[in-house]
Predict the 3D structure of the following.
Amino acid sequence: MDSVAWLKKLIGFDTTSRSSNMDLINHVANYLENQGLSPWLSLNAQGNKANLFVTLPAADGQTNGGIVLSGHTDVVPVDGQQWLSDPFVADIRDQRLYGRGSSDMKGFIACVLAAVPAMLSTKLTKPLHIALSYDEEIGCLGAPVMLAELAKRDLQPQYCIVGEPTSMQMVIAHKGIHTFCCEVHGKNAHSSLTPQGVNAIEYAAKLIVFINQLAQQLQSRADLDHAFDVPFATVSTGMIRGGTAINIVPEYCAFEFDYRNLPHMTVAELIQPIKDYIQKEILPAMQAVAPEAKVELTHHVQVPALNDAANAKLHELVMHLVDDKQRSKVAYATEGGQFQNSGIQTVVCGPGSISVAHKANEFIELAQLNRCDRFLGELIKSHRS
Ligand SMILES: [Zn+2]
């Protein structure tokens, strides 16, 4: 089956993140087993979603080292979008293949699966690995489960190419995403008796203003990276809820904020000042009225950034395989940082365009699939003994 046929097949599985991806995973696992390979799965806690990992050993039987070709199997919902064709039935019009996940990122997976026979008929100097994950679109939840299992099995690949849509350009770094929920627990009172209450909304507001001041400071640091279109780390409060009625001092308010850090910046450098402010300024004032008052800060999404440092060898290898010699740094995040944190040098490079991802009438140019087929063909050749 060629990459177009594979992509049609993969789009036919509705793998929206809220649903199971097992049908797709089982189909691919069967295919790989029929090729004589031994894929293994790692499941989520509920057992209804799986990552798939398979190693194509080197000619001498070696399974360590080599390159991982990585893609996520889940796609974003199509709810409320106006599609001209069924999003889960691939439709080819004007040299473009339309369907949910065509660019993000079943196109890359299709090219990789179509290349398996060529990989198998080549005497490889190094192993090749294929990694398919679940729940990337809802916070990169699947990849860490797979990477933990990889470590348990003592498998240590050297490199990883994450095939997110980059129009086949090499992306060498991306920002991280960290989201936090801050819950302020005050004390209610009748609004005519404010001194007896602890107004959770007002304390939350103080915290939001403080966090915004930190965000402003991030913009004027000396260590900005102008290779990113937004050259500084960003912080934004995006959700807030609290209060029950206008005449009740609210006892509860929760807000959520997101932090997009530059690769060299840590989570602690944002969060520690917030924790200090809560301890020194917020809690003493709240607890002077109600000793039980408290503030809880929870770290939700944790997607590490992809750093370009120490990846020179992989950059050189991939640079030979792409036509466009740019090395970009992007604002969106991938599983790349997670692979990197497991000691696997990583870049992002795949067919299709990020600009059509997550939208109605998502498509991939057939030429992009073709370009990725060639890329993988050259990659296999570079591993030929
Ligand atoms: Zn994606």
About this structure: The chain has a mean pLDDT of 97. The pocket of zinc ion is lined by residues 72, 104-105, 136, 164 (CB under 6 Å). The radius of gyration is 24 Å. The CA atoms of residues 283 and 294 lie 7 Å apart.
